[in-house]
Amino acid sequence: MSRKARKNVGVIGLGIIGTRVAAGLRAGGFQVYVWNRSAKPAPNFLGSPAEIAESSEVIQIFVADAQALFDVIEAMAEAITPKHVIICSSTVGPEAVLEAAQLVQARGAQFLDAPFTGSKVAAEKKQLVYYVGGDEAAFVRVRPILEATSKSIVRMGEVGHASTIKVVTNMISAVTSQVLAEALAIVQKAGLEPETLTAAIEQNACRSGVIDLKLPKMMSGDYDPHFSLKHMFKDVQLGIHMANALDIEIPATTVTAGVMYGALNQGWGEMDYSVLFKNYTPSEVFDELPALEHVLAQRAGAQPPALPSESATFSEPVPEPISASALVVAEPTFTVLPEPISVTAEPVTTLNGSPAREMVPHEEASRIIEAVLAHVSSQRRELGVVMHENRHPAPKTVEHAAEEKPAAALVNDVEKDAEAKPAETTQPEGDESKSEGKPVNFVRRWFVGRSQS
């Protein structure tokens, strides 16, 4: 207790922002004591949250999710006194913040809901913006501490209000980043230089801070995290959860969540969330398909013909190919599509958007297609990628609030609701501009088609 002083501040959570806030407070003349779940070589690193509470009466918390917040409060509960002010700067949503406030206030201490906006660079320059909800007396007491690492403080009323605003503003940032990735992909595919888009946006009303930060990263392929994809996905989940509780449909955010979930499955969670543009960059090139007869022979259980080795010369004898028609292949099975498809509603396109040639299926063609797909599936499994038809993944474990539904479950809920409500009117064939449920269909195309391939 001898270390307590008016300017002692505790910082819990030394991630991208917490580490820089602690440094900014030291630069502002505060004595800073820190703790993190995994030990880090930081000045005044203490052994537990309880030791932080014993050292500092003002504690600012930067943890990833609601469960981590509750764990920290529980760990230091016995050391919390009526003299303490706990500042929650974690983005965990209003429900979790209100519960955390009750736990702190039960110990007689004060609690402020104070999430921030600003990325790594803003934290380094002490240019964060805090949204603060809670008691005015508590705010006045800690205001110098918040001002030491920020350029602005916006008061938000009661506890929970600031967290609501923080979640919805992050929804805007997430959707903006996805639309920006789509726009850049179109520009590049159309043969224009990316700098053309930059010059146009500089003079356009759509320009925003998110675009100024994320467009250069997308163009350069630099996804060093300023704000990681896994944390942005967690915040988008919070937004979907809030919207569901309020019975509000948010299709743009739901689609973005589906795309983010696919990106997480690609292993991009630790990267900056501008990595969404990587969906539009060339993917891994698989080995060239072997001779069709070789694949068909494997499918039939026959001895396949030997393929020429890399060192083979033209003088080597090449085995006679096995005729596809001579093989006995199991009849192909077909999966019923989730919704009827009209062959006249719209032209079929390939994955890159170009028109596909119309082909009439027949028995031999179906055997060939099945054999080729089986080979591609085998190659992808070797690279750790699973084909759509064999994969119905449970959500990956990402840091999120204790009772949050993952994006996959939320997307499924939306689709089930859509299927349960038949359209009130029948639209003419080909009139897609008036058809209902398009956001849901687009989620399915991305979530099932793109992100799992």
Automatic annotation (TrEMBL):
It holds the Pfam family NAD_binding_2. Residues 8-157 form the 6-phosphogluconate dehydrogenase NADP-binding domain. SUPFAM superfamilies: 6-phosphogluconate dehydrogenase C-terminal domain-like, NAD(P)-binding Rossmann-fold domains. Residues 396-406, 413-422 have a biased composition (Basic and acidic residues). It comes from the Bacteria. One of its GO terms (molecular function) is NAD binding. This is 6-phosphogluconate dehydrogenase NAD-binding. Residues 160-277 form the 3-hydroxyisobutyrate dehydrogenase-like NAD-binding domain. Residues 396-453 are annotated as: Disordered. It comes from Chthoniobacter flavus Ellin428.
